[in-house]
TrEMBL record:
GO cellular component: cytoplasm
Residue ranges that the Swiss-Prot or TrEMBL entry lists as coiled coil: none
Gene3D superfamilies in the record: Diaminopimelate Epimerase, Chain A, domain 1
Keyword line: Isomerase
The protein's name: PhzF family phenazine biosynthesis protein
Organism: Sinobaca qinghaiensis
Highest classification ranks of the organism: Bacteria, Bacillati, Bacillota, Bacilli, Bacillales
Family: Belongs to the PhzF family.
Amino acid sequence: MKIYTVDAFTNEPFAGNPAAVCLLEKPAEDVWMQKTAMEMNLSESAFLVKEPEPFHYQLRWFTPSSEVDLCGHATLASAHILWEQDSVPFDQVLYFHTKSGLLSASYDQGRIILDFPVEIPGECPIPDVLLESLSVPVVSVEKNRLEYIVETTDEEAVLQAKPDTRRFLELDARGVILTAGSSQEKYDFVSRCFYPALGVEEDPVTGSAHCGLAPFWEKRLHKSSFSARQASSRGGDLFITIEKERCLIAGSAVTVLESTLFF
């Protein structure tokens, strides 16, 4: 059985966020998928099964420690592999049946565009653990159903932050996003994302986080289209547009490894 490693949200190998993509002939057992994700040891592994309807797929995502409800970079990687390896025409929209509903992906001028739900954050009480564990000034804090979004003063503060991520395990959320407006003209905002509860200390590039970051910055910048940089050590670029209750997230991908599973 073939399994691929794809660097998502980058057009360069060994950058962006690597995801494993496994094309299954039939649904697999949860335990097997979890063990495979542990073996791949990437932030997410994606497992796809064809649906009877053409260009429709079941899609599930696993970190090395658990299944997740929504994942952007592994969805982008999955679409990339289907177009590159599975003889799907590039002008064909792909549909994914997931725990977060029906998602889709399309291809346009070298970029893959994901159609995801907007995850609107709102004001919330600021947990003491956030103030105690972050090493940067806190300007504002909001929360959606997935994570806390913490705004700090500037891009340099995001880059230099050294949070005590172990303390994030005390929070009632899958993780914490640290963000600020960008000092670079080509980006509107930058971010870093931390998910120790999912077994991911810092995620290199997180597509689903931008379902919350886009409406967060929409209120502050009074615009609905953004160019964003996730400022992890690998780094990645995302292009996001809000259309009603949907978040269109665009990026590139590169296949870096093709391997065979024997078990």
